[in-house]
Amino acid sequence: MKKKTAVIFESFQENLRIASWEALTCAIEFSEDGVDEITLVLMDDKPKTKAGELSRQSGYPVIAIDIGNGGLYNSERTLSMLSDLFRNQETTHICLAGTTQGLDYAPGLATRLSKQCMTAVESVVTEEQNLCLARAIYGGKIMEKVRVDASGAVIVTQPGTFKPFSEETSGAEVVECLTIDTPAESIHNVKVKQVQKESSALAEAPVIISAGRGIKEEENLELVQRLAAVFTKSAVGGSRPICDLEWMEYKQQVGITGATVTPDLYLACGISGAAQHISGMRNSGFIVSINIDPKAAIFNYSDVCIVEDLTTFIPTFIETVEKLKPA
Amino acid sequence: MKILVCVKQVPEFDPEAEIAISENGQDIIYDHLTAFRINRVDEYAVEEALLIKKQHPDATIDALTVGPDDSATVVRRAMGMGANHGIHIRTSDSRNRPAHQVAQWIAQVVQDSGYDLILTGVMSEDQMQGQVGPILAETLKQPCATSVIRQEIMPETGVVAVEREIEGGFRDILELKLPAVLTVQSGMNTPRYPSLSNVMRAKRAKLDIIEVDSLTQVTAIAQASLDYPEKTRAAKVLAGTAEEKAKQLFHILQEKAIFP
Questions:
Q1: Pick the CATH number of B2-214 from 3.40.50.410, 2.40.10.350, 3.40.640.10, 3.40.50.620
Q2: Which chain B residues are within 8 Å of A312, Cβ to Cβ?
Q3: Shortest CB distance from A304 goes to which of B28, B147, B236?
Q4: Do A139 and B225 touch (CB under 8 A)?
């Protein structure tokens, strides 16, 4: 049976989120080629030009929704607009990126449309000839594969896991513009403010040494600093729990609510490998992980795995480098 | 003011304890070493409720969990921190209930309780769905904000002002009409340790226990199968003593031209 899939594109400050292009890839992988129908939905306060560009670039028809509201995201308005739209269109599956915005409204949207919702989807896999969606659970130690029933689902992709869509297309531009005026009664937008500039140190460093909860004591951060000093140009980053403990500043955080980094070398010290962290570093050039737990999820994303206690291994490694490095 | 905090019991991801998949590939098996504790980000939700109570002393805080018999410990943990009352929606066995099922059960139990504010963590550490809060809000027809890093209740206008953490160091600032559901992000405050007197009180306290069999069941989600994750890279495990591993790593990085 022909399915209708919609992919929601999110814009932030004039740009479309890369994660939305990843959600499109997921939708394509999850569709039957030549049978299923894919439509893109763009929500923006000036959607016209962007929608034309999106349609030409992707080769898919675009429904552009003028959200007004100064372009600010409002979950109450979003839920009401999208549930009306998808009911009218009889959409089967809805794909969107697991940004903080996507995760804010996707479960509610699924509930309103009586569909199942899956968040943090990492891949599309085939199990007994059924297409399934796979997601990491238990801090990445186990993969859960979920079959989607015919009534459809809201599928939320984990940023950084699917390749952003980048096929050459030559389709004509197909755009339908809608203005849906839904007043918000219970949620009022005040503004969006920047509280922290992104750290340029992390963005520019060819080597990032990153610390996770496995470093155990704040004093052990000194070891991580010393390890960083072994490399000519390096920066120190950390997982969210380390920043929550105030052992590091939030601008040093790598992961979904922090920085997305792609250094030549990412050296993960005591990082367990939860999906939120992996999203921020999985595309690094070369990944080395040190963890005492041989089953740590981070090892599945690493080129080199070292099962050691980092409080003893880091000093050993520093000594080794000093000995072997040509003068 | 009535506040509800939803907390979850999760396994400690201790390398000593094995988290394995059952033979039929459907269930998670814990071994005897697995310890269970409160979901960390839910502790921030409990602490935030306590901070609200400090400002608004008339507030009462109920802590609620959904889970098997022993998950009552996380409700008592929240009471040890200072919550006034505990509610346990008791399931028979499995811990891995789908988020929409859990949210529907909670909604059925609390819909007539008149809570002004419902707080919970942004996601659980085991299932990592981040769905219970928003589905609960949708079912109760209340506004919801996720990933909240700051809140301020203004009782005179019946509004809660919130800051949501969004990407790139930005915050989304909103005002929600009460009653509302907020899911909180970690780092929002510093959760306190339970106090001895509260722990003693929590130990003796009688919880409201609701058996899930007495609630309406929703259709279960399509059957999931479980698997160990595949390696996305070479995942070469270095062998030998620590010194040998250090040497190997040095040479690997030299080959990669990271060291001269």
A1: 3.40.50.620
A2: 242
A3: B236
A4: no
Does A20 share its domain with A166?
yes
The predicted-structure confidence for A121-170, as pLDDT tens digits, reads as follows: 999 998 888 889 999 998 888 999 998 888 899 999 999 999 999 887 87
- What is the extent of the structural domain holding A298? 200-324
Chain B residues within an 8 Å CB radius of A273: none
Which of A179, A212, A244 terminates a domain? The answer is A179
**Number of folded domains in chain A?**
2
Domain boundary among A146, A179, A212: A179
Reported as a single tens digit per residue, the pLDDT across A75-98 is 999 999 999 999 999 999 999 999
ipTM comes to 0.94
Best of A138, A239, A289, A291 to disrupt the B interface (most B CBs within 10 Å) is A138
The angle, 0 to 180 degrees and rounded to 10, between the axes of the packed helices B242-255 and A310-324 is: 50
Contacts of B176 in chain A (CB under 8 A): 186-188
Name the residue among B21, B147, B233 with its Cβ closest to that of A302: B233
pLDDT tens track for A288-315: 999 999 989 999 999 999 999 999 999 9
Instruction: Please judge whether B247 and A320 are an interchain contact, meaning their C-beta atoms are less than 8 angstroms apart.
Output: yes
Q: Minimal Cα–Cα distance from B206 to chain A, Å?
A: 32
Residue A254 lies in a domain: yes
Chain A residue numbers with beta carbons less than 8 Å from the beta carbon of B120 are none
